[in-house]
Specification:
Number of domains: 2
CATH topology of the largest domain: Rossmann fold
CATH class of the largest domain: Alpha Beta
CATH architecture of the largest domain: 3-Layer(aba) Sandwich
Radius of gyration: 20 Å
Strand content: 15-25%
Structural class: alpha/beta
Number of helices: 13
Number of strands: 13
Largest sheet: 7 strands, mixed
Distance between the termini: 41 Å
Order of helices and strands: HEHEHEHEEHEHEHEHHEHEHEEHHE
């Protein structure tokens, strides 16, 4: 199913049906499984604003049960099981890592993801049009996004020849994204260096390996592990004079050079509509997965200056935000 077909599914969420009105006086319980509220705070705020816009008020007709992993992802199974024991009405598990933990804990409680990188190849849905199980939501299609990121990195550095790619084997969507990047890199005439990073203490070694292979720039795939280490990664990139393309804009806000990513605030606001429909009786198996429609390119000119780079005016003109 192509992108235009999915945009047609937006009408599915346009107006609540009278038959789906929530039970008068009932307080619904929403489970929220994530790493930490410090990751994408603007997205979390947008999610709550989306719920309020749809008539859901915390403490009045909903209660949100938060479970934070705080970077200890081995705790996710236990946290997901806690939400199941609480008999929540729906679990919000924003990305693939959290969705996977939630699905292993329950096959019956509805699960809503907000920025899943690859729900089909991860096995979390049968198809985008008809998810078929207990999980649905919004996808960023990381393979496509990372290919675009490589193209933008090349546009920022026209003479680019060697690129290091930092990825996490524990993130289900990273292997397909890496494959897509390798294909795109070949087309662009780039030599790629794959660097698997599984924990923060491996960050330094990854940048040393880049230097040894004389990489000209780096691409960092998006995952909670790297989001938690955003400032450290930005500092290492600056120390090693390594122009780096990241995913979420938060990386650039703490000193990274470039970021290209879906607008997560928009995605999380839209995720609230899925929660709304499910609480009103909709079956997640029948709610099509929607794709990201808003993307943002952010450039940090202060970092570019520190790296001795001049960003081409044509790319600056395409940026959604330029940090000076």
């Amino acid at each position: 199913m192509d992108r235009r077909a999915f945009l047609g599914t937006l009408g599915l969420f346009a107006a609540p049906l009278a038959a789906e009105a929530q039970q008068a006086g009932k307080v619904y319980r929403i489970g929220f499984l994530w790493d930490t509220p410090a990751v994408w705070p603007h997205a979390l705020k947008a999610f709550h604003e989306g719920l309020r816009d749809l008539g859901w008020t915390e403490g009045k007709n909903i209660v949100v049960e938060y479970r934070w992993a705080d970077g200890r992802f081995e705790q996710l199974p236990r946290l997901a099981e806690e939400l199941v024991r609480l008999k929540v009405d729906v679990i919000v598990a924003p990305t693939s890592i959290y969705t996977g933990a939630a699905r292993r804990a329950t096959s019956t409680i509805p699960i809503v993801f907000a920025s899943h990188a690859d729900p089909i190849n991860s096995g979390h849905v049968a198809s985008l049009a008809r998810p078929g199980g207990n999980a649905t939501g919004l996808t960023i299609v990381m393979s496509e996004t990372m290919v675009k990121s490589v193209e933008l990195l090349k546009a920022a550095l026209p003479g680019l020849r060697r690129v290091a790619v930092i990825w996490d084997p524990a993130t289900p969507s990273h292997r397909p994204a890496l494959n897509a990047v390798e294909t795109a890199g070949h087309t662009l005439g780039l030599r790629l260096q794959s660097l698997a990073v599984r924990e923060p203490r491996e960050f330094d070694g990854a940048f040393l390996a880049m230097a040894q292979e004389r990489a000209w720039a780096a691409l960092v795939l998006s995952t909670p592990l790297f989001m938690n280490g955003a400032r450290r990664l930005a500092d290492l990139a600056l120390t090693h004079k390594m122009p780096t393309m990241f995913g979420p804009r938060e990386h650039v806000e703490v000193g990274g050079l470039l970021s290209y990513s879906p607008d997560r605030a928009d995605l999380y606001r839209r995720a609230a509509a899925y929660v709304d429909r499910i609480l009103k009786g909709a079956n997640p198996a029948d709610l099509p997965v929607q794709q990201a429609t808003k993307f943002e390119l952010v450039i940090n000119l202060k970092t570019a200056k520190a790296l001795g780079l001049t960003i081409p005016p044509s790319l600056l003109a395409r940026a959604d935000q330029v940090i000076e």
